[in-house]
Specification:
Length: 149
């Protein structure tokens, strides 16, 4: 049995009814964060740095794991939102410093997912989960080696 989906993607198309509002919701969240970080925004949010947020990242990750272990979907949703806020806040801090923006983060993860899944986005066929794992590890090792050069 091949793990590769139908090349047309017909059987793997996401259910768009569950994804109907992500751009609107994401834009609303970005606007809220913009207001929090604006001139009349929240002093706590505005003074944060990459380093000051490390403890909050650890805390939120622990809460996400706890919600998963407790099979608490309502709390998991809330904690994922908290982590997303921190990701957006860190992206804003780095954009303000001229390092990278949330657009760069989104582009980088999208490109990485496509590169690391040639069995989905290219004409590579993997016949087992072990082949998928080996492919993933080989691609990841190649990417790391290229970064070092």
């Amino acid at each position: 049995m091949s793990i590769r989906p139908d090349p047309k993607g017909a059987t793997d198309t996401p259910n768009t009814s569950t994804m109907s509002q992500p751009n609107t919701r994401f834009s609303e969240l970005l606007a809220t964060i913009g207001q929090l970080l604006g001139d009349t925004g929240c002093p706590w949010d505005k003074q944060q740095t990459n380093n000051s947020l490390k403890k909050h990242l650890n805390s939120e990750l622990a809460e996400i794991i706890q919600a998963i272990e407790n099979n608490d979907h309502e709390n998991l949703c809330e904690e994922l939102g908290d982590m997303l806020y921190l990701i957006l806040l860190i992206s804003h801090i780095n954009a303000k410093d001229g390092m990278f923006s949330i657009e760069d983060v989104l582009q980088a993860i999208n490109e990485k997912l496509i590169r690391r899944h040639p069995h989905v986005f290219a004409e590579v066929v993997c016949k087992s989960e072990e082949e998928l794992r080996e492919q993933w590890l080989a691609i990841k090792a190649k990417e790391k080696a290229e970064k070092l050069n």
